[in-house]
Design a protein that fits this description.
The complex is a heterodimer of chains A (1049) and B (299).
Chain A: H1 2-14, H2 17-37, H3 58-70, H4 73-90, H5 94-98, H6 104-122, H7 124-135, H8 149-178, H9 181-201, H10 208-214, H11 219-226, H12 231-236, H13 243-266, H14 307-327, H15 329-347, H16 361-388, H17 390-393, H18 397-401, H19 408-439, H20 447-476, H21 479-495, H22 526-549, H23 559-569, H24 572-599, H25 605-619, E1 629-640, E2 645-655, E3 662-668, E4 673-680, E5 686-691, E6 696-705, E7 710-719, E8 738-741, E9 747-748, H26 759-764, E10 791-802, E11 807-809, E12 813-820, E13 823-829, E14 834-835, E15 839-843, E16 846-852, E17 855-861, H27 869-886, E18 894-900, E19 913-917, H28 936-946, H29 962-1002, H30 1019-1037, H31 1039-1045
Parallel strand pairs in A: 1-10, 17-18, 18-19
Antiparallel strand pairs in A: 1-2, 2-7, 3-6, 3-9, 4-7, 5-6, 8-15, 10-13, 10-14, 11-15, 12-13, 16-17
Helix pairs in contact in A: 1-6, 2-7, 3-8, 4-6, 4-8, 4-9, 6-8, 8-9, 8-13, 9-15, 10-11, 10-13, 14-19, 15-16, 15-19, 16-19, 16-20, 16-21, 19-20, 20-21, 20-22, 22-24, 27-28, 27-29, 28-29, 29-30, 30-31
Chain B: E1 3-11, E2 17-26, E3 29-34, H1 41-48, E4 56-61, E5 64-65, H2 70-75, E6 77-80, H3 92-102, H4 108-121, H5 137-149, E7 155-159, H6 167-180, E8 185-190, H7 193-199, E9 202-207, E10 210-215, H8 217-223, E11 228-233, H9 238-244, E12 246-253, E13 256-262, E14 272-273, H10 278-298
Parallel strand pairs in B: 3-8, 3-9, 6-7, 7-8
Antiparallel strand pairs in B: 1-2, 1-4, 4-5, 9-10, 11-13, 11-14, 12-13
Helix pairs in contact in B: 3-4, 4-5
Classes of the chains: A alpha+beta (1049), B alpha/beta (299).
C-alpha cells in the first residue's frame, strides 16, 4: 500500500508543472548568486566575501547552498509539502479517498516520503545552478579552483536533505492537521522569523555552542565551525558533519522524524479537521418543516446614487477591508512573530562589545522599524492578494459585480484599506518602541520624532509598495502569479544595482537615502528624499488609475475583454487624472534629473571606477616627479552650515627638500571645488595640466625652486552645494555638526592612494600589479609618513568662521574670538609643528570642562548626550596620567573631544583635538555592575588620547608595519589604562572579543595576512591581533618592561 | 416595461459559441428560461446582468441600453447567480446589510427594516445572527434570494435558484417569486420543467445558444396536443424504437421503460395518447433542433 501511494506521488509530482517551475526558480537564483559571487557583473568588481575564496570551493558552495535552502528554499518546501495532503481536501476528494481501505501509514507515509524525494530532487536546482555559474564564461580564472563533485554533494547531504525533511515535516503536519493551506504559508513565514531571531541571539560570544545546536537549519553550527578558517582552508576543506555540526544535524533530523510521527499519530481519516476543537457543521434551519407564515410585506426603501453615496460606500468598504486584515488570524500570527522579532531587536539596541546603548529614540526607531520592515512587506504583499481576491475567493464576485457601484469604489477602498495596514503596523512599532524606552527607565520620549520618522518618512515607502502590490495583483489577475511577481520585484531590487541600474530614478520607490542624527536631525536628507517619493508617488497614482481601468468586473477575465472594457472606462476624469499624474511624474522626474545629473555630476559605480583608472593611466607618469613639501599652513575656513557651503582660503608654504631644483608643482583637488584663486609664489606659473574632472593640476614655475627654498601657494576655494544628489552624500558641511578634514584643501603631488587597489580590477583594466603597501625593507618608502605624502611636520594656524549660534573648532589653541558681518570667527594656532592632518568642526555645542594637572580637558557635545561625559573625562585623565608616566610628556596643553553627527561611526585623533562620533560612546549604556559590560566610552577615549603619542609623536612610514606604531600601540596603551581601572579579570571579555574579531577578520582577507610587524593597514591585525599580542607580551615580560621599551624620552 | 433582446451573439475566447442570434422579448411577470445544462442560459443571464459583453446584438430594458448603460441597469437589478459563496465569518444580517449599503440604501432605519423584512420572507430571521459559514445549501440559497430582492429591483434575474432546495423550500420560493413577479420582470432560468410550468406565463426554450421556442407554456402545450404518445417497452427494445420513432423522452417506471414519442397520428396500438406536458414540449423541441442540426451537418 505504501509503495503504491509513494509511487503514485512521485508520478503525480513529476507531471506537475509546479515541480519544474520551482526547480527553475532555484536554478536561476543560484546561478545569479553564483555569478554575483564570482564577480561576473561588470559594475561589481567588488566580490562578495573574500576574493581569495573560490567560487567552486566547498565553503562557498556550502554557504550558498545552505542560504538558498533557507530562502527561497523554505517557501518552496512549504509549497510542496502543504498540498501533499491538502489537495485532497481542496478538491473535495477526501470523502472518496478516506472511505477506501487505505492504511494510515500508506496514505501519510506514501505522500510524505514521495514528496520528500521529489522535493530533494527539486532542490538539485541549487547545486546545478551553482555549477553552471562556476562554468559560466566570463568568470575570472582566479576565482575558480579545482572542480570536485564532492563539494556539491556533501552540502546536499548535510544541509539540503535534513533541512527539507525537518521543514517538510513541519509544513506537512501543519497542513494535514489544520487542513488549511494558509497555515503552511504563515508557518513558513513564522519559521523564517523565529529562525532569524535565533540567529540574532547567536551574536553573543558566550552562548554560541548552545545557539549553534539549537539552530534548526545548521547554518549557525556551520558558521561556528568555519568562522576562523583562512581562505586556503575554505578552498580545500570539506565541511563534514562532524562535531557540533554533526550533532546538530542528527538532532534536527530526529526532530523532523518525530514531527512526522506526531502528525501520524494525530491524523484521523475524518471529514473535519483533526485537532481543532470547534468544528463547524452545517446547521439545519430551525424551520425545516415550513410553517406557512403570513407574508411579511417588504417595506419601501429609497436608493441613493451619486458621489456622496459612493463615498460613503467607499468608506464603509475601506473599513471592512481593514477589519478583515486586522482580524485575520494570519495577520495576528505574523504580527506576533514580528513582535518576537522586535523584542529580540530591542535587546540588541546599539550593541558594541556586547554593551548596549541608551534607548534614545532615534536608535530605537532605526532598529525597530528596520527589523519590522520585513514583516510589513510580507503582510502588505500577502494581503494585497487577499483583498483584491476577496470577493472572488468567497465566490461572491458575481453578486458584487452586479451591484450599482462604480468601479472605483471597490478598487479604491481595497487600496485604502491596505494603505492603512502599515499605519497600524507602524503604530505598533511606535507603541513598542515607547514601551521599550519606558521599561528600561528611559523617559526622554520624543513623540514628535516617532511621528515624523515613522509616519512622515517611513510610511511613504510602504505606501509605494502597497500600491505596487495592489496594481500587480489587479493587472496580473492571478493570485499566485501576483505574489510571484512581487517576489521577483523584491529580488530585482536587491540585484538591480549589480545589474547596472543604480540611478534612483530607475528603481521603483528608490530614494536618495535618509539618515538621522541627534545633532543634525534629518537635516538636508529630507528634501531630496521627499522629491524622490513624490516622483514615485505620482507614478503610483498613474499605475493605480490604470489598475482601476483594468479592474476585473464581470465574468470575462481574458485580456482582450479587459482591454476593451478599460478603453471604454477611460473617459474624461480618468484621462485627466492619468494625464495629470504622468505629467507630474515627468515634471518631478525632470526636476530631480536636473538636480542630480545637471547641477551635480552623476556617475554610476562603473563610471567612477573608470575615472579612477583614467587618473592612473593619464597621470601615473607623474608618480615620481619630485615635489616640494608643505611646511606651513595658514587657512581661513568660512563655513555656511545652512547652505552646506564653505569658502576655504589660505596659504601653504612649500619647501624644496630635495637636492635638485624643482620646476613643476602638482596640485590635487576634489572635483566639486570651485577654484577662485590658486597661485604659486608671485604668480606667472604656466598650467601644463588643468583637469578639473580628475582634480589634477600641473603648473610649471617661471623660475625653478632651488633646493631649500620655499614658495607660497595661495588659494581661494569655494565648495558649492548645488541642488541635491542622487544619493545624499555631502555630509561634511551640515546645518549642525560640520566635520571636514584637510581633504578639502589642495594636496601636492600625484596621489598614489587614489589608484585602484583591488587586484582583479587592476587586471581587468590592464593596470600593472601593485603592492598593497611598500615592503618594510623599502627605504625609499620611509620618506613619507602613512598620513601624508606631501608633508612632514607643519606649522599650523587657522581661522574658522561660522554662524553666530555655533562654535567652530580646529586643532590648536584659541587665540581670538570675534564677530564680524554677523558671523562668528575663531583663530587657532598651534605652538609646535604637527602632522599635516587637521579638521574643522562647527555645531551648537554644550561644553564640559575638566582638568588633569595643568591640561585643560573639554568635551564639546550635543545637549542631551551627557550620559558618558564623566567616563570620557576619566578616560582622558587616566590616559594622560598613565601615558605621561610611562611614555613621556604630553605635547599639548589641552585635550578636546568634539562630537560629530553619526554619519560616520568613529573617533579620530587630530593634534589636541578628538572628533568623536555621536554613535559611539556618547549614548552607550555601561552597566559597571555587570562584569561583562565593556566601558567602551572610556576605552575609546583612552585609545584616542594614546594617539597623541602614537601618531602625533611617533608616526610610521607609508610601508608595512606603519600602522603598528600608531594603532597597535594605542590599543595597547588603552588596554593598560583599562586594566588599571577595571582589573585584569574584566579584560577577559574584551580580549576574547578582540581575538574573535581577529580570527574572523583574517578569514575574509583578500590579499595576504601579514605578521603584525608587517601589517598593511589591516584593521583586524593592527587593532585586534595587536591587542591580544601586546597584552600577552605585557603578561609574559611584565608591563613595566614593555613600557620601558616604549618610553619616548 | 419590457426587456428586448435582439440578435444577441457571443463566442468565448476558447471558441465556444454560447449565444447565437438570440432574440427574445420579455414582458413583466415571470419569465422562464428552460434548457439543458450548457445551453447558454447562464451566458444570456450574465449578459443581461451586466457581467459579460456581447459580440453583437442589443439588449434594451425599456429605453435603457443594457450593454452600454450598465450602471443604470445595475440600479434596478436584482441578481442571483447560479453559483455563489458567502463570507463564512459574518452573519446573514451583516452581509445583507452590507449589500443594502452597496445597493444605495443609505438610510439606516430603512436598511434595518428591509433587511429584517427580507430575512423574515426568506425564513432566515431565526438564524440571522449565525455565521454564514454554518448555513446549509438551502439556507445559503435563500440568503442569495434575499440579497437579490434588496432595493427596488425592476429586473430580477435568478439563475437556477431552486437547485439544492428541498421541496418545501422550493415551494416557498416559488410563492415569493410569484408575488414579487407581478409587476416587474423576473427571469428564471432552470432545467427543471416543473418550475416553469408552475410559475411562468412566458417562457423560452434554449439549447446550444439558440432560442428554440418562446411563448406561453399553456399555449405551447396546447400546440402539441394529440401528438404525444406513450408506450411501455423493455429496455432492450429502445434502440430499435429510436430508429423507428421520434422518441422524445424515456423514463423508468416500476422496472419498465416508458417512452414518449411525437407523431402526427397514433403510431401503433401499443401507444396511448397522452396530454402533453411542458416536459414533452421541452424534449420535443430539443430533439427537433438536434435533428435539424444533424441534417445540416450531413448536408
Amino acid at each position: 500500500m505504501f509503495l503504491q501511494i509513494f509511487k503514485f506521488e512521485l508520478w503525480y509530482r513529476l507531471r506537475r508543472p509546479a515541480t519544474y517551475i520551482y526547480f527553475g526558480i532555484l536554478l536561476v537564483l543560484s546561478l545569479l548568486m553564483a555569478l554575483v559571487t564570482g564577480g561576473f557583473f561588470e559594475s561589481l568588481t567588488a566580490v562578495v566575501g573574500s576574493g581569495k575564496v573560490h567560487l567552486n570551493s566547498p565553503f562557498t558552495i556550502n554557504g550558498l547552498t545552505s542560504a538558498l535552502t533557507l530562502v527561497p528554499g523554505i517557501l518552496l518546501v512549504s509549497a510542496m509539502f502543504g498540498p501533499a495532503v491538502l489537495r485532497d481536501f481542496d478538491s473535495q476528494m477526501h470523502p472518496l479517498l478516506f472511505t477506501t481501505p487505505i492504511s494510515k501509514w500508506g496514505y501519510l507515509g506514501g505522500r510524505f516520503f514521495g514528496t520528500l524525494v521529489i522535493t530533494v530532487l527539486m532542490m538539485g536546482g541549487i547545486g546545478l545552478g551553482l555549477l553552471i555559474g562556476a562554468l559560466f564564461p566570463g568568470i575570472p580564472a582566479d576565482r575558480l579552483g579545482e572542480f570536485h563533485l564532492s563539494y556539491y554533494l556533501v552540502p546536499y547531504l548535510t544541509f539540503v536533505l535534513p533541512n527539507v525533511l525537518l521543514t517538510g515535516a513541519i509544513f506537512f503536519a501543519l497542513a494535514t492537521l489544520t487542513r488549511q493551506a494558509l497555515s503552511t504559508y504563515v508557518g513558513s513565514i513564522v519559521f523564517l522569523v523565529l529562525y532569524f531571531v535565533a540567529q540574532a541571539q547567536l551574536s553573543d560570544l558566550d552562548n554560541q555552542t548552545v545557539a549553534s545546536l539549537l539552530d534548526p537549519m545548521g547554518s549557525g553550527a556551520m558558521a561556528l565551525l568555519t568562522k576562523y578558517w583562512t581562505p586556503v582552508e575554505k578552498n580545500a576543506r570539506l565541511i563534514l558533519p562532524t562535531g557540533l555540526l554533526g550533532l546538530n544535524r542528527l538532532l534536527w533530523l530526529l526532530v523532523g522524524l518525530l514531527l512526522f510521527a506526531f502528525c501520524y499519530l494525530r491524523f484521523r481519516f475524518e471529514q473535519g479537521a483533526t485537532g481543532s476543537a470547534k468544528r463547524s457543521r452545517p446547521q439545519t434551519a430551525p424551520g425545516v418543516v415550513v410553517a406557512p407564515t403570513a407574508p411579511v410585506l417588504l417595506p419601501p426603501v429609497e436608493q441613493h446614487f451619486g458621489f456622496a453615496q459612493y463615498f460613503r460606500q467607499y468608506l464603509r468598504l475601506t473599513w471592512l477591508g481593514l477589519r478583515d486584515v486586522l482580524r485575520s488570524p494570519y495577520f495576528i500570527a505574523i504580527v506576533a512573530a514580528g513582535l518576537a522579532f522586535l523584542l529580540a531587536a530591542a535587546l540588541q539596541i546599539g550593541k558594541i562589545f556586547d554593551t548596549t546603548t541608551y534607548p534614545v529614540t532615534a536608535q530605537v526607531i532605526e532598529i525597530l522599524s528596520g527589523s519590522f520592515s520585513l514583516f510589513v512587506l510580507a503582510i502588505v504583499t500577502f494581503y494585497a492578494g487577499e483583498l483584491v481576491w476577496k470577493e472572488r475567493d468567497a465566490r461572491l464576485n458575481q453578486m458584487h459585480d452586479a451591484l450599482p457601484i462604480p468601479n472605483w469604489v471597490p478598487f479604491a477602498s481595497k487600496l485604502t484599506a491596505l494603505l492603512l495596514v502599515p499605519v497600524v503596523l507602524l503604530l505598533i512599532v511606535m507603541v513598542f518602541g515607547i514601551g521599550t524606552q519606558l521599561v528600561s527607565g528611559y523617559t526622554h520620549l520624543e513623540i514628535g520624532l516617532y511621528l515624523r520618522w515613522l509616519f512622515g518618512l517611513k510610511l511613504v515607502d510602504y505606501w509605494l509598495v502597497v500600491v505596487l502590490a495592489v496594481v500587480v495583483h489587479v493587472v496580473v489577475n492571478n493570485k499566485y502569479l501576483g505574489h510571484f511577481v512581487m517576489v521577483l520585484y523584491y529580488v530585482f531590487t536587491i540585484f538591480a544595482g549589480q545589474m547596472g541600474l543604480e540611478h534612483n530614478l530607475l528603481l521603483f520607490g528608490a530614494d536618495s537615502g535618509i539618515r538621522y542624527s541627534d545633532m543634525n536631525g534629518f537635516g538636508h536628507f529630507v528634501g531630496p528624499y521627499l522629491w524622490f517619493k513624490l516622483y514615485w508617488g505620482l507614478l503610483a497614482v498613474a499605475l493605480a488609475i490604470v489598475a482601476n481601468l483594468l479592474w476585473v468586473r464581470g465574468s470575462e477575465t481574458d485580456w482582450d475583454t479587459r482591454r476593451e472594457l478599460a478603453a471604454r472606462r477611460f473617459t474624461g476624469p480618468a484621462r485627466a487624472a492619468l494625464a495629470l499624474a504622468l505629467l507630474g511624474f515627468v515634471a518631478v522626474g525632470s526636476w530631480i534629473f536636473y538636480n542630480t545629473n545637471v547641477l551635480n555630476t552623476y556617475r554610476g559605480s562603473k563610471a567612477r571606477q573608470q575615472l579612477t583608472v583614467k587618473y592612473e593611466q593619464q597621470y601615473g607618469r607623474y608618480r615620481r616627479t619630485p615635489q616640494p613639501r608643505i611646511v606651513a599652513v595658514d587657512v581661513q575656513v568660512d563655513l555656511f552650515p545652512e547652505r552646506q557651503e564653505a569658502r576655504v582660503q589660505g596659504q601653504y608654504w612649500l619647501r624644496n627638500k630635495t637636492a635638485a631644483a624643482l620646476d613643476t608643482v602638482i596640485l590635487n583637488l576634489p572635483e566639486d571645488v570651485r577654484i577662485r584663486k590658486m597661485q604659486l609664489g608671485a604668480g606667472g606659473a604656466t598650467a601644463v595640466v588643468a583637469d578639473s574632472v580628475l582634480g589634477f593640476y600641473v603648473q610649471r614655475l617661471p623660475r625653478p625652486l632651488a633646493p631649500g627654498d620655499s614658495l607660497a601657494l595661495t588659494f581661494d576655494l569655494y565648495y558649492d552645494s548645488p541642488g541635491f544628489e542622487q544619493q545624499t552624500q555631502r555630509t561634511g558641511i551640515v546645518a549642525n555638526g560640520t566635520f571636514v578634514n584637510n581633504g578639502t584643501l589642495p594636496h601636492i603631488g600625484y596621489n598614489a592612494d587614489a589608484e585602484i587597489g583591488e587586484e582583479s580590477a587592476r587586471k581587468k583594466f590592464g593596470l600593472k600589479p601593485k603592492l598593497r603597501m611598500a615592503r618594510l625593507e623599502d627605504t625609499a618608502a620611509r620618506a613619507n609618513t602613512y598620513i601624508a605624502s606631501d608633508a612632514d611636520w607643519v606649522r599650523f594656524a587657522a581661522t574658522v568662521s561660522t554662524v553666530p549660534d555655533q562654535l567652530a573648532l580646529a586643532p590648536g589653541y584659541l587665540q581670538k574670538e570675534w564677530t564680524a558681518n554677523g558671523r562668528r570667527y575663531f583663530r587657532y594656532t598651534m605652538d609646535a609643528p604637527i602632522l599635516d592632518f587637521y579638521s574643522f568642526q562647527s555645531a551648537r555645542y554644550a561644553e564640559r570642562h575638566a582638568k588633569w594637572r595643568d591640561v585643560d580637558i573639554t568635551i564639546y557635545y550635543q545637549p542631551g548626550h551627557e550620559y558618558n561625559l564623566d567616563r570620557m573625562v576619566r578616560g582622558v585623565q587616566d590616559a594622560l596620567a598613565y601615558y605621561t608616566k610611562n611614555f613621556g610628556p604630553y605635547q599639548h596643553r589641552q585635550v578636546r573631544i568634539v562630537e560629530f553627527p553619526g554619519y560616520s561611526a568613529f573617533a579620530q585623533s587630530f593634534p589636541n583635538t578628538i572628533p568623536f562620533s555621536e554613535n559611539i560612546g556618547f549614548i552607550a549604556k555601561v552597566d559597571t555592575a555587570n562584569p561583562k559590560d565593556v566601558d567602551y566610552p572610556y576605552y575609546v577615549t583612552a585609545h584616542e588620547v594614546a594617539h597623541q603619542w602614537w601618531a602625533h609623536q611617533v608616526i610610521g612610514a607609508a610601508a608595512q608595519g606603519g600602522t603598528l606604531l600608531s594603532e597597535t600601540l594605542s590599543q595597547y596603551s588603552a588596554l593598560m589604562v583599562m586594566k588599571q581601572k577595571y582589573g585584569p579579570e574584566r579584560m577577559r571579555k574584551f580580549l576574547k572579543y578582540e581575538l574573535d574579531t581577529y580570527l574572523r577578520g583574517r578569514s575574509t582577507e583578500r590579499v595576504a595576512e601579514q605578521p603584525l610587524y608587517r601589517v598593511e593597514n589591516q584593521q583586524y591585525i593592527h587593532y585586534r591581533k595587536g591587542s591580544v599580542v601586546m597584552y600577552a607580551l605585557a603578561d609574559y615580560l611584565g608591563e613595566d618592561k614593555v613600557n620601558q621599551r616604549f618610553r619616548l624620552t | 416595461m419590457e426587456l428586448r433582446i435582439e440578435h444577441l451573439s457571443k463566442t468565448y475566447a476558447n471558441g465556444t459559441q454560447a449565444l447565437r442570434d438570440v432574440t427574445l422579448t420579455i414582458p413583466t411577470g415571470m419569465f422562464g428560461l428552460l434548457g439543458p445544462n450548457g445551453a447558454g442560459k447562464s451566458s444570456l443571464m450574465r449578459t443581461i446582468a451586466t457581467l459579460q459583453e456581447a459580440d453583437s446584438g442589443s439588449i434594451q430594458l425599456g429605453d435603457l441600453d443594457v450593454l452600454q448603460n450598465k450602471d443604470a441597469v445595475r440600479r434596478v437589478l436584482g441578481y442571483l447567480p447560479q453559483e455563489f459563496g458567502v463570507y463564512p465569518k459574518i452573519s446573514a444580517e451583516e452581509l445583507l446589510d452590507h449589500f443594502a449599503v452597496l445597493k444605495g440604501i443609505s438610510d439606516s432605519k430603512q436598511r434595518r427594516d428591509i433587511v429584517s423584512g427580507l430575512l423574515h420572507r426568506t425564513n432566515l430571521y431565526e438564524v440571522r445572527k449565525k455565521n454564514l459559514g454554518g448555513y446549509s445549501g438551502g439556507m445559503k440559497q435563500r440568503f442569495g434570494i434575499a440579497q437579490a430582492l434588496l432595493g427596488n429591483p425592476r429586473l430580477i434575474i435568478v439563475d437556477e435558484p431552486t437547485a439544492g432546495l428541498d421541496p418545501a423550500e422550493r415551494n416557498r420560493f416559488h410563492n415569493l417569486l410569484a408575488e414579487i413577479g407581478e409587476n416587474i420582470i423576473v427571469i428564471l432560468s432552470t432545467h427543471i420543467v416543473g418550475d416553469v410550468s408552475d410559475l411562468c406565463r412566458n417562457m423560452a426554450i434554449i439549447n446550444k445558444g439558440q432560442v428554440l421556442l418562446t411563448g406561453d407554456p399553456l399555449v405551447v402545450m396546447q400546440e402539441l396536443r394529440g401528438q404525444v404518445w406513450r408506450r411501455e417497452i423493455d429496455k432492450e427494445q429502445l434502440p430499435a424504437l429510436q430508429q423507428e420513432q421520434q422518441v422524445i423522452s424515456t423514463r423508468l417506471f416500476a422496472g419498465r421503460t416508458i417512452v414518449h414519442v411525437v407523431a402526427g397520428s397514433q403510431p401503433g396500438p401499443e401507444y396511448d395518447g397522452v396530454e402533453p406536458t411542458l416536459e414533452d414540449v421541452y424534449f420535443a423541441r430539443i430533439k427537433q433542433a438536434e435533428m435539424v442540426n444533424a441534417v445540416a451537418v450531413e448536408s
